[in-house]
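Q: Could you fold this chain for me?
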Amino acid sequence: MPCHLAGKFPHLQLLQLTLCYFVVDIPEILERGGGPRLAFLRYCVLSMNMEPMFVFLAQEYRLRPGHAGALALFDVFCARQASARLRAYELLPPRELLVEAAIAGIRAQWTQMQSPEPPDEASAIRLATPSRNLFDAIARGVQQDANGHLARVSSTYDPALTPEENLPGGKLSEGQRHFVENVWHPILKPRLVGAGFLHLATVA
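A: Sure. Below is the predicted structure, expressed as structure tokens.
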């Protein structure tokens, strides 16, 4: 029985603690796709839990690596001033600089690619597809952190409820509403969808 039902039956209250420690298999939800994945990703947006969203998109990027996708993932989730920066300090700059250094090269290539004029021979930058493994270490670190936010979502999200019902009190806080209306919809979602992460086009 899902833990949200336990409190409705007084004779089952002794079981409620055990029931509520049910852990959801987030990778399975993300891999399965369909309605359950859309609902979960919507919950991630509404609750401002970006770690599961990043893990999903990093896997999508791995299948189709490219300049736009790499820059979007870094700028949205990993950059020092990112609007949806992961709560994983040890994995991101300024603590960890490898991905940031790789992104600098990718950004230079992207700038050259977008220029209407061909570069002169002396300043031309050699173009190369970004590594498909670029975000693997960050995604793996987020997944393996037993005390991290992805682990917390695994222990609190109930697939039997709607995304809104999974929120505390069943509704958005002021901070969450501000994020959805002023950050996610006008800025982050268009950036990610425009970079090729088309699964997000129908999320939230």
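A (continued): The chain has a mean pLDDT of 90.
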